[in-house]
Amino acid sequence: MDKKLILDACCGGRMFWFEKNNPNTLYIDIRSLPAGTLNRTPKFEIQPDIIMDFRKLNFPDKSFKLVVFDPPHLKSLDLNSWIAAKYGTLNPKTWRDDIRQGFNECWRVLEDYGILIFKWSKSHDNRPKRDISLQEILKILPAKPLFGHSSGNKLNTIWMAFMKIPGGPQ
Ligand SMILES: C[S@@+](CC[C@H](N)C(=O)[O-])C[C@H]1O[C@@H](n2cnc3c(N)ncnc32)[C@H](O)[C@@H]1O
After folding, report:
1. pLDDT in tens, 79-133
2. What number of CA atoms fall less than 13 Å from residue 164's CA on the CB side?
C-alpha cells in the first residue's frame, strides 16, 4: 500500500468525507458492516481498509500528517439499536480510558506539527445517562484544542483542531 498522509482512526461509514475513497487517506475501524444490514439506511456500510483498534494502532510513531478521530460518543446505548449499529457505542465503564488511549495513539502516530481533528457530539435529546459533555471530554484529553467549531441544527457537534508541537504533550 502507498504511504498515506492521513489517518481516519475510526472511519465508520465515512459519512463526513466529501470523497469517500480519498487516495491519501487510510481508513480504519474496529469492525466492518456490509451494506443491507441496517433497514433504515440499507446502503450504509462500514468497509475500512484495515480492521484496527484505535487504542492500539499498528503504525510507527509519526506516520501521518493529519489524523481525524471521531469515536462513538454515546454510552449506555442499547447495543441492538440502529444508532449503536451505525455509530458504535462507548463502554459505560471504560469509556474514559478508551477515549484517552485512542487520543494518545492518534497523537503518537502524528508527525511533529501534524494536525489532529477531533469531533465530539452530544445526542440530540440530551439524555444525561448516555451523553458526555465537551467539558468532561476535555478534562481527560492530554492536549488542549487550538480552536473548535460547533455545528448541526442544535449545535450539538463540535470539531476541534489540535497541533502536535514538539515539546508539548506526547
Ligand atoms: C461516530 S462513528 C464514525 C463516523 C464517521 N466519522 C463517519 O463520517 O461516518 C464511530 C466509529 O468508531 C468505531 N469504533 C469504535 N470503537 C473503536 C475502536 N476501539 N477502534 C476503532 N474504531 C472504533 C465504530 O465502529 C464506529 O464506526
Report:
1. 778 888 999 999 999 999 999 999 999 999 999 999 999 999 876 555 666 789 8
2. 24
Answering whether pTM is above 0.90, one says: yes
Pocket test for ligand 1, best of 30, 49, 117 (most atoms within 8 A of CB): 30
Span between the terminal Cα atoms of the chain, in Å? 28
Q: Which domains does the chain have, with CATH numbers?
A: 6-163 (3.40.50.150)
Distance from the alpha carbon of residue 12 to the mean position of ligand 1, in angstroms: 5
Contacts (Cβ under 8 Å, ≥6 apart) of 152: 121
Residue type, 42: P
pLDDT band at 153 (very low <50, low <70, confident <90, very high): confident
Ligand 1 mean position, distance from CA 169 (Å): 24
How many Å apart are CA 29 and CA 9, to the nearest integer? 7
* Ligand 1 centroid from CA 28, angstroms: 8
